[in-house]
Amino acid sequence: IPVEPFDLVVFGATGDLARRKLLPALYHRDLAGQLSDATRIIGVSRRRLSDEDFRCLASDAITGHGDEPDAANLARFLRRLCYVAADAGADDGWPALAARLAEQPEHIRVFYLATAPELFGPICDRLGQAGLAGGTGRVVVEKPIGKSLASARAVNEAVGRHFSEDRIYRIDHYLGKETVQNLMALRFANALFEPLWRAAQIDHVQITVAETLGVEGRAGYYDTAGALRDMVQNHMLQLLCLVAMEPPASLSADAVRDEKLKVLKSLVPIGDGNIHERTVRGQYRAGASRGGPVPGYLEELGDPTSRTETFVALKAEIANWRWAGVPFYLRTGKRLPARVSEIVAQFRPIPFSVFDGSAGPIEANRLVIRLQPDEGVKLWLMIKDPGPGGMRLRHVPLDMSFAKAFGLRNPDAYERLLLDVVRGNQTLFMRRDEVETAWSWIDPILQSWAANPEPPRPYTSGTWGPSAAIALVERDGRSWYEPV
Ligand code: BG6
Fold first, then answer.
1. Taking every annotated instance into account, which residue ranges of this chain make up the domain Glucose-6-phosphate dehydrogenase NAD-binding (predicted)?
2. Rounded to an integer, what distance in angstroms lies between the CA atom of residue 207 and that of residue 313?
3. Are 176 and 428 in contact (CB under 8 A)?
4. Whose Cα sits closest to atom 6 in ligand 1?
5. Does the pLDDT value for residue 274 go beyond 90?
6. 176 Cα: distance to centroid of ligand 1 (angstroms)
7. pTM (two decimals)
8. Is 235 one of the annotated active-site residues of the chain?
9. Could you tell me where the DSSP H helices lie in 35-113?
10. Cα(340)–Cα(228) distance, integer angstroms
């Protein structure tokens, strides 16, 4: 179903995010027939480009994204594109942008800030001065929203001066992933899990987001962020919220966000008193990744003194009625052995065994939600090994693979999220209080690490992080579940 006609203004239109994600995502939605004929995409950046130059850049971005677009479809998409050169630090260009938008005043206006966060405030000021921030116009902001609670508040204030909260869309692209949305379906469209989804039945939860890539061309940004800010403050805490939240009253944006906020507010603080038993940070050294040798982080960065973490493992706890005492082990890192993200709910063991020793060990049930790749859900159960050999038990998965069950192309998260902005649906976007509450949990961890003279622990590229990350879980008599 096509969405209403809109004008999408992409600031930072020549940058990495626009080329890798936004333009290909819009192209795919056009292909699916969801962009109405009059919909336009207006690229903005400081570079002096013509409309034609921008269309060439977009064409390269779409072709370079692994698509082999059909010429007619691509040409139709490119006709939607135009370009305005404007700089948040100068007056030039803003009247031209206003004039372009004035051509179709009835269109929904979306301003996508795919720029450095320092520019969010200045761009919104310019939009305000040009009279473009009013009406139903919406603004989309990308992470990182700040580097700390104070800076996140400053960004939120600056954007909030021109756009009301119901017109601000803070993107966390993990929320647009099919499998992440499926978490809500799994939890709230099945009666089976809810009675078990609590401390009495669940021993612990593991959330792993592993990448094989290093920092690639982003070392400049990454070195000022590190894994805790880059992945945990946003994506991983959002996943934790979706696993742990109470059933919302509805799927309306505020109903869902209220429940996530309660989880964030219930996180047990980590800081000076418990930093060593609760967190491990690591930094990759040279090693092997995907079959070839790779340099270490410090060599890639060209700065041997950096203490930025490229890996973090931590033990979070949620102090509420449902989850008290259940550890949520989180780990994420670059240059790990596989690109794999998954959530594991490990159930408690059976209270008593009626089987004798010849049946073999009885393993506890486990629900594994594979977010990417090979998206699917596995529920591990004990069954009788078939055959006449007596009662021997085996741990096997009930296995639901999205590819096998549906065989469809898995849309990129941005495709869903961009159209949700046009539809005015904020359910999969973060509210200001969520972002700030997440920062208020992250800040003391960052401060404790900064005050600690020990650098991050080294780990060899292509391994599962420093051995201390294994010890973090083994100290509790548990172990990381290796994704297979
Ligand atoms: C981004 C981080 O938000 O998420 C990157 O800044 C990371 O460092 C990326 O690589 C991971 O996203 P995905 O969708 O590839 O899992």
1. 9-182
2. 10
3. yes
4. 230
5. yes
6. 13
7. 0.95
8. yes
9. 51-63, 71-78, 94-102
10. 18
